[in-house]
Specification:
binds iron/sulfur cluster, elongated, Ubiquitin-like (UB roll), 10 helices, alpha+beta, binds FE3-S4 cluster, about 35% helix, Fumarate Reductase Iron-sulfur Protein, Chain B, domain 2, binds FE2/S2 (inorganic) cluster
């Protein structure tokens, strides 16, 4: 705000509906007045309510928890609900996350990809064969270890790390930093019966940890500030050892 007046913002939004025959990707510009504390969520909602009800974008929690509002903001993946317009210029460009199936405009189907990736990695606690030992599940965990697992569980599956990753652009089957983070998380969990050899089966290839070229864009864009570089290095060390063995 300057001299009590709000800035005029110009949002250039990528529009394209793959379900409309003949539609083509294009940038559409919307102008609006910035308000105090305005986020991109608020700006897009105002545009949809007052200017263009056909504009598609996703929001659920508006609090950085659900991961559904991820989009490319001035060339960088991020959460629209956590992005204040005051931290951006007056010209703002918004595009959908690349890599994921486009639903329309800024809306992409990250859920479909995340489900397939989680199934492929079997991202759940595996019991020992023939064992359904509830006492083990309820065993007290060392608080420091629980804290380390909790840290990795903060992933909200927003897809920013995958959208920013050069490997993901080249390999459709790459599990991304989000997938490698899951493997690191389950490997830490003493309730998971899998061995390093079992983890090697699922991520010991170029679609997994050996496809990662350490580009680290994932680490830079993760809105939850997860220690992705450390986790990927950790999984790679373990898997390399398993591969040699
Ligand atoms: Fe999003 Fe970070 Fe999880 Fe990737 S690791 S999906 S960027 S929260
Ligand atoms: Fe991609 Fe991150 Fe590896 S950006 S190449 S997953 S370090
Ligand atoms: Fe849920 Fe942005 S709306 S993270």
């Amino acid at each position: 705000m300057a001299n009590g007046t709000h800035r005029k913002l110009r949002l250039h939004v990528m529009r394209y509906n793959p379900r409309v025959p003949g539609d083509a990707p294009r940038l559409q510009t919307y102008e609006l007045e910035e308000a105090d504390g305005m986020t991109l969520f608020i700006a897009l909602t105002e545009i949809r309510e007052k200017q263009d009800p056909s504009l598609q974008f996703d929001f659920v929690c508006r609090a950085g928890i659900c991961g559904s509002c991820a989009m490319v903001i001035d060339g960088r993946p991020g959460l629209a609900c956590r992005t204040l317009t005051k931290n951006l210029g007056e010209e703002i460009t918004l595009a959908p996350l690349p890599f994921f199936e486009l639903i329309g405009d800024l809306s992409v189907n990250t859920g479909k990809w995340m489900r397939a990736m989680s199934e492929r990695l079997e991202a759940w606690v595996h019991m020992r064969a023939g064992e359904l030992d509830l006492t083990r599940i309820e065993e007290r965990m060392d608080p420091a270890l629980a804290e380390r697992i909790y840290e990795l569980d903060r992933c909200i599956e927003c897809g920013c790390c995958v959208a920013a990753c050069g490997t993901a652009r080249m390999r459709e089957d790459f599990v991304g930093a989000v997938g490698l983070n899951k493997i690191a998380r389950f490997r830490l969990d003493p309730r998971d019966a899998r061995t390093d050899a079992d983890y090697y089966e699922v991520v010991g290839d170029d679609a997994g940890v050996f496809g990662c070229m350490s580009l680290l864009a994932c680490h830079d864009v993760c809105p939850k500030n997860l220690p992705l570089a450390t986790q990927i290095a950790f999984v790679r060390r373990k898997m390399a050892r398993e591969g040699l063995g």
